[in-house]
Write a structure and sequence with these properties.
alpha+beta; Thiol Ester Dehydrase, Chain A; 2 helices; 7-stranded antiparallel beta sheet; about 140 residues; 7 strands
Amino acid sequence: MTDSVDVPEGWREFVVDDEFQIHNGPLFLADPFEGTEEEPLRLGFRVAEKHCGFPGMCHGGMIAMVLDNALGRSVQKGCGVDGAPTISLQVDFISAAKLGDWVESRVRLLRKTRSLAFVDATLIGPKGIVAKASGIFKLPTQAPK
């Protein structure tokens, strides 16, 4: 699918077995990326026609989906877990992402407890911040031994 999408150097398709993401993607993973404990990974995408609601402008649902993925996947990688369902996601839309724009995440893993992870992120386009998000994710609990 990357053949038809103009992707900046240093990004590869983020392939997952998830029909929703396959239908709405593709999303891309920064690689190589020197992740940190605070920002374990970075996701990006190119705004395509199928992502636009109002002609030429990326739909807010697509922006929310990318932020949810960036936050959740960062929690998984940063906390070393296989799954971390979203408990709460707050998205604030700042400016438009337009058809053809390359948009990418910046995530901060703020805090983790035994059962929860708290994160925030910005989604950045060519003219600056497109959206901000914060989320709470459920960490899997281990059964008592």
